[in-house]
Specification:
The chain is an alpha+beta fold. 68% of the residues lie in helices and 11% in strands. Helix 3 runs parallel beside helix 6. The chain is elongated.
Length: 655
Amino acid sequence: MKNNFYLKMALRNIRANKQLYLPYGISALLTVSMLFQMLSLMSNKFEGMRGVDSLILLFRFGSVIIGIFSLIFLLYTNSFLIKRRKKEVGLYGILGLEKRHVARILFLESLLVGTMTILLGLGLGALLGQLLFLFLNYLLKLPIQMAYSLEPLNFVLTATVFAGIFFIAYLYNVSQVTFSNPIQLLRGEKEGEKEPKSNVLLFILGLLLLGAGYYISLTISDPIAALLNFFVAVLLVIGGTYLLFTSGSIYILKRMKKNQKLYYQPRAFISISGMLYRMKQNAMGLANIAILSCMVIIALATTTAIYVGSENALGSHIATDHQATVYYDEEKTIDAVQADLEKVTARIQTDTFGLTVSDLESYTYMNLFGTFDGNAFKKGEGPTFTGTTLLTAEAMNGLENLSLTLEPNELYLHEAAHYPYDTVVIAGETFNVKIFDNELENFMVDTEVGEIYLFVAPNKETLNRILQKYEENEQGYDTSVTGSVIWNTNTSAEGEMAYADKLRPLIEKEAIVNYQPRAEMREEWYAMTGGFLFLGIFLGGLFTIGTILITYFKQVSEGYEDRTRFQIMQKVGLDKEMIRDTSRSQVVWMFMLPIIVATTHMAFAYPILYKMLLIFGLNSHVILIGSMAGIVVLFALIYWVIYRLTARVYYSIVQ
């Protein structure tokens, strides 16, 4: 046969199946565009920008996620497409075409669709890239504009990735032709129509997996535990969701079928039978939609909350315009750090560079890391996230304008630690515990990120004595002594940055100092949180595309399969109105179920998400709940639009 014949057949097949190829091609085009844009962001030079390393890491992570998702997503939707076309491919065999001829036609189809989508996707990515950079610049609140450049390597890399994906899809399609005879292919659409069997054990296992995932979220103790256990909980919930959709839904429908009063009603009879008849295939699609919907909501809600709460997070890290932290070198004593701190403070007071220095306060404190055994604080076997922070009453009173007084055997404890005992044993010494509940404005200690206990000691001698006894070991991570100085300059952000650039080399000559003005921290913070939000929007859009396409192909596939059954119902006497009503109820349930499940998952995921976001400085329930509620409502509206559009396609096929 002439090559021209194969090309004509491939083009005719694409046109004849445009109802399947068009959404598939558009989705592939969009994913090509998204990967190219993410690679372009990752390869940008970001000249003059602080915090660039974390941003590039985010973009690298986003590129990997897009590549993996594109592979899974396009292969999954390709399986819908080839299943719908099995009858057509089988007919070629009946008409005399050999399998190698069919394989050549399929190859040309894949080549045409793949080439077109890759070229258009790259063009769209290059066209929208500048707009994307403007949006990212807005989110990051940078003083400079990032330049958008089109690197040739990104074109090649994107094209290579998707060429590989389309080739894998082609190999799968050919395998469907090679290992089936024409008669099997002609009946390919009918495969899987047997009523699925329910499995009570799998149903119970699904409940247990889901319950275990929910339990981890509800009982999580601290942010570090949340971070370590989050993916375990996610895997448990995903496994439970699949089992409950595949086995649980069938079990419930069969229980409904056994209820004669319910089942033997015309509408219920048709609805339950129809849903049960194809539930095995539907269940996998519905579970995928539910999980993708949940991923969209989580990605957008958490990144939005982090970004919206940026100013609150900054306020919890630094209360003044400037903060310099002095660390110990080799001699870990309060006096040694205090001496260095005084040198740094003197330099700040002397070298003002024309600015007015106000609200200057300096203080020294120490951290002990270990674990509590009852009321006794002991050294741990390794780095832990339980610790005590101690400073003198004089330092606390000066910082917070308080009037705390203590006896030699007493310690004040800030109420945020929720300590249950009247005494505490530290380094072998027993102290009576007094509670103070003042809201701290200048001393920044985040008691929610880990188990941190803020103690106030009577004097510097008490701190030295505790430190000397506590560090009778060789484990360097058990103690740290730190000095801090905070002050304001009451100038613009640009003025703060210029002042910091001049002051930093001078104070670094005096001691080991970590100095960062709030303006610089804000720039780096928005680079990180803006990058998170951008990535959340990007991945949320990607997962939404997946949800739309899976829903569309599920509706088209079910529409063609249900059309024959509804025609049989009409022949046995059921009127069109009843068939239309029952089919509508099935479609509504099929659409409502995933969004209900996704929303339920989000409600139970709230505790673990809140604990994780404490690491990013977000400690506002209002911001997180508001973000989650807003994203759920927005996604529900988008999901409703998807329902209206795809349901219309379904009804047009069935009728």
